[in-house]
Design goal:
By secondary structure, this protein is an alpha/beta fold. The protein contains 31 helices and 24 strands. It has a four-stranded antiparallel beta sheet with strand order 5-4-13-15. Strands 9-10-8-11 form a four-stranded mixed beta sheet. A three-stranded parallel beta sheet has the order 1-2-3, with helices on one face. Helix 20 runs parallel beside helix 22. The protein starts with 7 loop residues before the first helix and ends with a helix. It binds one RNA strand through strand 7, strand 11, helix 11, strand 24 and helix 19.
Length: 884
RNA sequence: GGGCGGUUAGCUCAGCUGGGAGAGCAUUCGGUUUACACCCGAAAGGUCGCAGGUUCGAGCCCUGCACCGCCCACCA
């Protein structure tokens, strides 16, 4: 016998272990089946399960379990990302906390990397255990890591071949330099935040013209130490005569050519702009155009270097800012200071202000790789769901900049480039190969020094869909599962990851990596705020699972995953879906108590009872709705359809209607009802399994003697033939009638049926006689009783329904039907326009004559149906009124 | 500045191709019916942001406006 509620804590770990041990998560050996593959967005090795992961993986697991049940050969490829910067930061912080005086640089590269690996083995990947708690059915036997041997091989091969194709190159350009981490970062890793700052106006003296100045404005005064020019607009009359002359840079004394350049905006600031080519992206371009000198004034930590006057060296940049301003003021060259709010670039990991800095870095020619990636989506080879993200994707790829892929870190894939003493570079997959190349080049053996830098983490992630399947080896998995089916991810990594997988997949596999990209929402807190540690508004999915169980969390996320909208997670919602699980549990318990069991000879298409015919039809409809929802990535629709079917149809009506048959004396009806209930119960468990795998699996095991676990059972076929129109209409009628009666009863404050023991237990003559006086009610009761498979009138049989009906009898006269009729008459007697004013619901009537034929028909039918029902009820009540 | 999305019941949100305004929670009323109080029944609560337009008919389509949010690019 089932307990009254489900205990997730006991069940979840036990079932997960059983699933995993059974091998159900692995692709099977059924070569005839269609393959279905999802690659997991690899969580960071440093990660811990947050709500975004919970949503992301719930949706993937729903798809994976669904397709598995549909008989596909399913691979959910899992793995982890080495997360270069994040991991290096964690390990460095740990070194600090260890109290050791040993910094990263003290211990040296090799020891540090070893330490990082050690950390990875010990505490990396706790997130995988958390995914297990969520019920994620990934194939753990194929778990990969972006720095494992195979994937490293793929990275090397990709780097080398892109280099040989000229799609990877080394260049000296301005990069976003993170002075705290002391590495270059890509454009995407820079986030700009509005910051309250100042705009300082500096006067630069004009060479050879006493007391004449050109005034420039800047938000970063310290960069003036690296100024090499001043630009004005060619058409700006104020400065025309100065073009070609020189200003003298205060403090430094450098002569600055005054150049005419369109970049200078006469409307902006003073119309004259200082040019610092080595520390500003725009100035870099101007400097290049105008042939200005580039003076780099910072070292890697953004302290001033030897290119500034001796007294100004070795100063931290913000300190330098203050000193520059003070000095300019002292010199009388500070013309004005304005408050100025502006966007300041920060490193997304370090939180430090990023400095544009001139360095040598490796770049991927993203523009070239982007073209096929654009084409593929334009041609529909890969489709975004929802579709509107394609625009974002196009926008970015069309304006893509070279991708800086080198990082001055230690944790990552070391760049496979070796340098000879003269700087000549040899790119190869191994040191031996590089040496061989060098020997050929120089005609003798030489020593080579490997590039110190590592690759951007996203470089290896970009290869994920094929590298995890075994590429560059031609493995059977690669052949079978590439291209993969759907990528499920958040919009925040469309650029970082999705676009780059498209580029790399197309380039190296000649095929898109997935046919569909499902972009889901961001999970926010109840107030709609983005969850973040600093705000302290993080909702921890693990705590929610502790409290409500994994199924409740999963179902909530699925039910709220409407396309194109952020999810604001309300706890009450999770509680509601936990209750839904309990409802399912108790429905199964009801079946158990009433000895509902699977009948081997059961044929849902050959049933006698109206209620039974009806519920199998409803089941088929639910199956169709849930299937359509999942296949259209409308998870909320799917979850909603399953919810409504189980609770509002199966439990609220079917189980109630089945009671008479289940407890009555008609053995044939009883048997059919039992078998039907068991069949529907099993269909419901199948339907819900992708959403709520634990509770359904548990109920599956405990409700019958089974051969298989539910996870490998098949998805129910939506058999439309099971829909019996007559039974459907009959039940709709009854349900509507009963609802109406209940409502009336409640409004009139009639005590519930159970309070009229005579009527319920009775079936005595007095009741019978009263009923006979009212034909309409007898008709109702006859129909109800036939539907509920019982012999004629009362008995306990139609208890519920009967109770509702009979309870009205004594108080029917309270209803003011006359008034109701008058209202109707009035409405029908008025013109259409007036009716519209009275009641918008009737507005359809006014155009009956003009509407298309099928619409008219529809409306007429609906209307007459409603009128008939109303008339029946009113008639019954009128007779009762007369009798009372 | 460019782009995307949002504005529906007190709260959190559904509403897919235009045709009955919905769910969960909260509220109120009633309930000791042998599945379930994590339950059952009922009720109340909405000018679907505002203003126009198209249509027989608009929460949904079009135009404009207001407010909120996000992304991208930025003006020294």
């Amino acid at each position: 016998m089932l307990e009254k509620t489900f205990d997730p804590k006991e069940v979840e770990p036990r079932l997960y272990e059983a699933w995993e041990a059974s091998g159900a998560f692995k692709p099977g050996d059924h070569p005839d089946a269609d393959p279905f593959c999802i690659v997991i967005p690899p969580p960071n090795v440093t990660g811990s399960l947050h709500m975004g992961h919970a949503l992301n993986n719930t949706l993937q697991d729903i798809l994976v379990r669904y397709e598995r049940m549909r008989g596909k050969d399913v691979l959910w490829q899992t793995g982890m990302d080495h997360a270069g910067i994040a991991t290096q930061m964690v390990v460095e912080r740990q070194l600090e906390e260890d109290g050791g005086n040993m910094s990263r640089r003290d211990m040296g590269r090799e020891a540090f990397i070893e330490r990082a690996w050690q950390w990875k083995e010990e505490s990396g990947g706790t997130i995988f255990n958390q995914l297990r708690r969520l019920g994620a059915s990934c194939d753990w036997s194929r778990e990969r890591f972006t720095m494992d041997e195979g994937l490293s091989k793929a990275v090397l091969k990709v780097f080398v071949s892109l280099y040989r194709e000229g799609l990877i190159y080394k260049d000296k350009r301005l990069v976003n330099w993170d002075p705290k981490l002391q590495t270059a970062i890509s454009d995407l890793e820079v986030v700009s935040r509005e910051t309250a700052g100042h705009l300082w106006h500096f006067k630069y003296p004009i060479e050879g013209e006493e007391s004449r100045f050109i005034t420039v404005a800047t938000t970063r005064p310290e960069t003036m130490l690296g100024d090499t020019g001043v630009a004005v607009h060619p058409d700006d009359d104020r400065y025309k005569d100065l073009v070609g002359k020189h200003a003298v840079l205060p403090i430094v004394g450098r002569k600055l050519p005054i150049v005419a350049d369109d970049y200078a905006d006469p409307e902006q600031g003073t119309g004259a702009v200082k040019i610092t080519p080595a520390h500003d992206f725009n100035d870099f371009e101007v400097g290049r155009r105008q042939g200005l000198e580039m003076v780099n004034i910072f070292d890697a930590q953004a302290h001033t270097n030897e290119n500034v006057p001796e007294a100004w060296r070795g100063i931290e940049r913000f300190e330098a800012r203050k000193k520059v301003v003070a000095e300019m003021e002292r010199l009388g060259l500070l013309a004005a200071v304005e408050d100025h709010a502006h966007q300041v670039p920060y490193g997304d990991r370090s939180g430090d202000v990023v400095e544009p800095w001139l360095t040598d870095q490796w770049y991927v020619d993203a523009k070239t790789l982007a073209q096929p990636a654009l084409e593929a989506v334009r041609r529909g080879e890969t489709v975004f769901v929802p579709r509107n993200w394609e625009k974002t994707y196009f926008e970015w790829l069309e304006n893509i900049q070279p991708w800086c892929v080198s990082r001055q870190l230690w944790w990552g894939h070391q760049i496979p480039a070796w340098y000879a003493e003269d700087g000549e570079v040899f790119v190869a997959e191994t040191a031996e190969e590089a040496l061989a190349q060098a020997e050929k080049h120089f005609g003798r053996k030489v020593n080579l020094q490997r590039d110190e830098d590592v690759l951007d983490t996203w470089f290896s992630s970009a290869l994920w869909p094929f590298s995890t399947l075994g590429w560059p080896d031609e493995t059977p998995e690669l052949k079978r599962f590439y291209k993969t089916d759907v990528l499920v991810t958040g919009f925040d990594i469309i650029f970082f990851w999705v676009a780059r997988m498209m580029m790399m997949g197309l380039h190296f596999m000649n095929e898109v990596p997935f046919h569909t990209v499902y972009i889901h929402a961001l999970v926010r807190d109840e107030k709609g705020q983005k969850m973040s540690k600093s705000k302290g508004n993080i909702v921890n999915p693990l705590e929610l699972m502790d409290e409500f169980g994994a199924d409740a969390l999963r179902f909530t996320l699925a039910a709220m995953a409407a396309q194109g909208r952020d999810i604001k997670l309300a706890k009450s919602r999770i509680e509601g879906y936990r209750n839904f699980g309990t409802k399912l549990w108790n429905a199964t318990r009801f079946c158990e108590m009433n000895e509902c069991a699977i009948d081997a000879n059961f044929d849902p298409s050959k049933l006698e009872g109206t209620v039974n015919k009806w519920i199998v039809g409803e089941t088929a409809r639910a199956v169709a709705a849930v299937s359509a929802g999942v296949e259209g990535y409308r998870f909320n629709e799917a979850a909603g359809a399953a919810y409504r079917f189980v609770w509002n149809i199966f439990c609220d009506w079917f189980l109630e209607f089945s009671k008479p048959a289940l407890t009555g004396g008609d053995d044939k009806a009883k048997q059919e009802t039992r078998a039907t209930a068991a069949w529907v119960r099993d269909q419901a468990l199948r339907l819900l399994h992708p959403f709520m795998p634990f509770i359904t699996e548990e109920l599956w095991a405990r409700s019958e003697r089974r051969e298989n676990m539910l996870i490998v059972e098949s998805w129910p076929a939506p058999d439309v033939a099971l829909f019996d129109k007559a039974a459907h209409e009959e039940m709709e009628w009854v349900i509507e009638l009963i609802s109406e009666i209940r409502s009336v009863r409640s409004e009139m404050n009639v005590p519930a049926a159970s309070k009229v023991p005579l009527l319920i237990k009775g079936a005595d003559d007095a009741v019978r006689r009263r009923l006979e006086m009212h034909e309409s009610l007898i008709e109702v009761l006859a129909r109800v009783s036939s539907i509920t498979e019982t012999a004629a009138i009362p008995e306990k049989a139609v208890q519920i329904v009967l109770g509702d009906v009979l309870a009205i009898l004594p108080l029917a006269d309270v209803i003011d039907l006359d008034q109701e009729c008058v209202r109707l008459e009035k409405e029908l007697g008025k013109t259409q326009g007036e009716i519209k004013k009275i009641d918008g619901k009737l507005s359809n009537a006014q155009f009956l004559s003009k509407a298309p034929e099928h619409v008219i028909e529809e409306q007429r039918a609906r209307r007459s149906e409603a009128e008939a029902l109303a008339a029946k009820l009113e008639d019954a009540l009128n007779r009762l009124k007369g009798a009372a």
